[in-house]
Amino acid sequence: xxxxxxxxxxxxxxxxxxxxxxxxxxxxxxxxxxxxxxxxxxxxxxxxxxxxxxxxxxxxxxxxxxxxxxxxxxxxxxxxxxxxxxxxxxxxxxxxxxxxxxxxxxxxxxxxxxxxxxxxxxxxxxxxxxxxxxxxxxxxxxxxxxxxxxxxxxxxxxxxxxxxxxxxxxxxxxxxxxxxxxxxxxxxxxxxxxxxxxxxxxxxxxxxxxxxxxxxxxxxxxxxxxxxxxxxxxxxxxxxxxxxxxxxxxxxxxxxxxxxxxxxxxxxxxxxxxxxxxxxxxxxxxxxxxxxxxxxxxxxxxxxxxxxxxxxxxxxxxxxxxxxxxxxxxxxxxxxxxxxxxxxxxxxxxxxxxxxxxxxxxxxxxxxxxxxxxxxxxxxxxxxx
Length: 385
Hints:
Layout: E1 11-16, E2 24-25, E3 28-29, H1 31-48, E4 52-56, H2 67-82, E5 86-90, H3 97-100, H4 104-107, E6 112-115, E7 125-127, E8 130-135, H5 140-144, H6 154-172, E9 175-181, E10 183-184, E11 203-204, E12 214-218, E13 224-227, E14 230-232, E15 249-256, E16 259-267, E17 274-279, H7 281-286, E18 297-302, H8 311-318, E19 322-327, H9 347-359, H10 365-384
Parallel strand pairs: 1-4, 4-5, 5-6, 8-9, 9-12, 10-11, 12-14, 17-18, 18-19
Antiparallel strand pairs: 1-15, 2-3, 7-8, 13-14, 15-16
Helix pairs in contact: 1-2, 9-10
């Protein structure tokens, strides 16, 4: 689709991806942080005079996003267009392609271009003389039949999509940008991406994307430069503790008259940093060097020889945003305790044996009374159901 005879001898493209609107972080809502990222995007578009915003998939965190996430997406697209940019989005593996692409033909004229249908990969959006092609997340099983692919793999699917694009390029005669949602070989994954492997193979070779000026990738949550012209922007926020060291943001890509002429990373705001700390609980509670972590979302690993009582409550007195707690005794795990017999034993005995096994010491009297009350409450509920 062409949007008119506009000339952009030098074009600025803001490459972003993996918004995951509606996602939570260990049950903490991220909607306010995601809204702050939208503010940042709009400011960047205005200050940097961005021509096109490319969103490379996983706009939402799930196929049926909550209504407040849909409202935030609507606000984001409206504000970006009002700021002077055209916006192109593709669907990722977290999105419902049909739902995200609803009304795509109708809203094209408004400057928002949704590309979620594999059948449209070779039908670019034309801005000036730049052709923007969208390769949504391709589920190999769904495209294998229509495209008559010899094998069921991501490589076969994405390679075929790129062959269709390369066949179309000579008709355009100008510069080209491809948006794609895929796992390129050599990319570094984090803990928050959903597995997209098919038969154990999820990777797509970098060479598949040869022949275009810039490839805006989505799916991996860390910013990465696969080559000078093929990059991941990463997610705007940390969605797992494995991303504690990531710098989040977007690529500001320059296209000159002859193609790519540079890319600069624009850091995004960090509403609350994430971090991992480990050590014995008394040391963590007293060590002055951990003062900088007191406002962080934390994953804490305790190394005490015996699991401390009330560890989470004690940690949250100093670190109120502790979200994840692990236990790895210094020097290795204790010798495994023989599994107690379960069949025919009272529920209270099984529960108390569990406490003894995981903590290395028996429950005290107060804890025993709590277990007894819980067991009795469950029995009462079953009897009156």
